[in-house]
Automatic annotation (TrEMBL):
<keyword id="KW-1003">Cell membrane</keyword>
<dbReference type="Pfam" id="PF01757">
    <property type="entry name" value="Acyl_transf_3"/>
</dbReference>
<dbReference type="GO" id="GO:0016413">
    <property type="term" value="F:O-acetyltransferase activity"/>
</dbReference>
<feature type="transmembrane region" description="Helical">
    <location>
        <begin position="68"/>
        <end position="87"/>
    </location>
</feature>
<feature type="transmembrane region" description="Helical">
    <location>
        <begin position="34"/>
        <end position="56"/>
    </location>
</feature>
<feature type="transmembrane region" description="Helical">
    <location>
        <begin position="126"/>
        <end position="144"/>
    </location>
</feature>
<keyword id="KW-1133">Transmembrane helix</keyword>
<dbReference type="InterPro" id="IPR002656">
    <property type="entry name" value="Acyl_transf_3_dom"/>
</dbReference>
<protein>
    <submittedName>
        <fullName>Acyltransferase</fullName>
    </submittedName>
</protein>
<keyword id="KW-0472">Membrane</keyword>
<dbReference type="GO" id="GO:0009246">
    <property type="term" value="P:enterobacterial common antigen biosynthetic process"/>
</dbReference>
<feature type="domain" description="Acyltransferase 3">
    <location>
        <begin position="6"/>
        <end position="296"/>
    </location>
</feature>
<feature type="transmembrane region" description="Helical">
    <location>
        <begin position="242"/>
        <end position="264"/>
    </location>
</feature>
<keyword id="KW-0012">Acyltransferase</keyword>
<comment type="similarity">
    <text>Belongs to the acyltransferase 3 family.</text>
</comment>
<feature type="transmembrane region" description="Helical">
    <location>
        <begin position="211"/>
        <end position="230"/>
    </location>
</feature>
<keyword id="KW-0812">Transmembrane</keyword>
Amino acid sequence: MKQREISIDALKFFAVLLITNSHMEPLYGEYSQLATGGAIGDVLFFFCSGFTLFLGQERRFDNYYKRRINRIYPTVLMWALMASVFFRQQYNMAYIVLYGGGWFVSCIMIYYVILHFIRKFAFNHLKDVFYFFALLTLVWYWLIDKPIGYNMYGATYFKWCHYFLFMLLGAILGSHPTQRKIDLKIDIFKLIGCIILFYCILIVGRKSEMLHNLQVVSLLPLLGTTYYFYKVCKSNALKSLYDSRIVGAIMKTISGLCFEVYLVQGVLFTDRFNRFFPLNIFIVFVIILIVAYLLRCMGRWFSQTFKDGDYEWKKVFMLY
């Protein structure tokens, strides 16, 4: 990329906040319902991955996939070591290495394969590919067993299908970067409307025996949420924040640690600071960022160790 796509950094920043918040139920105590936003954070990250993949040049599959492995697995291996030594996760080392520390890594490594061949053979028909996977999602949803309380964004393999739609949406917008008219007030209003509609459909679909089959309709406002989030992040107002010295540095740091935060957060959530609520939310999040930064440094060091040439220590410890 000749010029950094600021909107993608901003989206990753919000993705980190939302995904982390969705796992903070122990920290909220009696306000545990505020620990939400994970599905929105996940789709923002998938969107960003699809967007940036289609900005770069096309490569032969082996070289393309090697770059994906080199980006992800040095960090995963270092997390397996860190989790074992410092967080008593030695019995989970094999799981961390084999599954990348969670479903997300395994899922996205599969997406990378599919997306490469879509780009190679159907680059000019991305919208048709999107419609095909949308139809596949509907058929899959219709066929699976859905008991009352079923959450299509929870612990289910079905989400491995429908999340790909958001990666494709990112690919479509990344491969055809046109100037889109941005009216910040209207786009924020549409964004909030999509979020409200998403949660309304999801709540009704999970509680009503009659309407639980309609839960899949929540994908429509979730796609709208992703698109309008992207538009808001492309606005001049967000660009001004991103370019500011303090806020910009915070956004760049957090967005740059997106993957590492996902890996480390699970072992760091604690109710030890709950007596300081709501300050405990900030305290734990800062701890997560510190550990995530240390993990990134270790991942970069590990990656450089197996390459020719001298260590580039500045790159190892670079903040963003």
